[in-house]
Design brief:
Elements (H helix, E strand, L loop, with lengths): L1 E10 L2 E11 L4 E5 L6 H8 L7 E6 L2 E2 L8 H4 L1 E4 L11 H8 L7 H14 L1 H5 L10 H13 L5 E5 L7 H16 L4 E5 L3 H7 L2 E6 L2 E7 L6 H9 L5
Parallel strand pairs: 3-8, 3-9, 6-7, 7-8
Antiparallel strand pairs: 1-2, 1-4, 4-5, 9-10
Length: about 240
């Protein structure tokens, strides 16, 4: 589904990514791990069209998308849920959801069905559908951000630290929702996380970023020891 080869990108003169390569198979769930400043969110920004790569290629379902404008990518089936539980605070929950389907605004009947599906998946949003999104709790805002992305009917969903700053119970709820998106909805997912335990519970494959490079990668089914991951995080090893 998604293939990244030799990706390099940065901000101004600051080079952040240094030849990052990985792939996400169709209906797979791949996690990018690493400490602060290692380039995880930069990868997502480059894939989502928010940052132009300086080298390398990004292909989605066999077609090149590197350098493509961000607003064109939802139409290609790629949607980003950014870090920070970003919502339109002054708009209602339902208005936020409809913004997720902006590029599909002519399909009224389909939008009504998708709204129903969003409320079924996240019942708490249904209870608050007329409430301003800024009044939601952190966990509810994260649910809304994910549900809004689903309104675009993505094939590939990018999730940037969805568990950040959430209570453990809410982390479990978000993790269950993410797993259902792959197992029940058949989505392909690329997950950036600092919560290693959550990532190992969800992902089929993990990659650890350090200093803008892939320092470690492994299929979760092959076994991943937390102590081994710690060495890569702290710089004791590099693949």
């Amino acid at each position: 589904m998604l293939r990244v080869e030799g990706l390099e990108a940065g901000y101004g003169r600051t080079r952040v990514l240094r030849g990052v390569s990985f792939h996400v198979p169709e209906r797979g769930l791949v996690a990018l791990l690493g400490g602060n400043g290692t380039g995880k969110s930069t990868v997502l920004k480059a894939v989502a069209g928010l940052l132009r790569p300086t080298a390398g290629t990004i292909t989605l379902a066999g077609g090149r998308i590197d350098g493509m404008a961000a607003e064109r990518l939802p139409g290609r089936g790629l949607v980003l849920v950014p870090q920070g539980k970003e919502v339109f605070a002054a708009m209602s929950v339902e208005e936020n959801l409809l913004m997720g389907a902006f590029h599909r605004r002519g399909a009224r009947g389909a939008l009504a069905a998708d709204l129903d599906a969003a409320y079924t998946r996240f019942p708490r949003l249904n209870e608050r559908r007329r409430l301003a999104a800024g009044m939601l709790s952190g966990g509810e805002r994260q649910m809304l951000a994910i549900a809004r992305a689903l309104m675009a009917r993505p094939r590939l969903l990018l999730l940037d630290e969805p568990s950040a700053a959430l209570a453990p119970k809410l982390v479990d709820e978000i993790a269950d929702a993410i797993l259902a998106l792959r197992n029940e909805a058949g989505l392909t997912l690329l997950l950036v996380e600092q919560n290693v335990g959550m990532a190992l519970d969800l992902a089929d494959h993990i990659h650890v970023l350090r200093d803008g490079r892939i320092a470690f990668e492994r299929a979760v089914a092959d076994g991943v020891a937390i102590d081994e991951l710690r060495e890569y995080y702290l710089g004791g090893k590099i693949a």
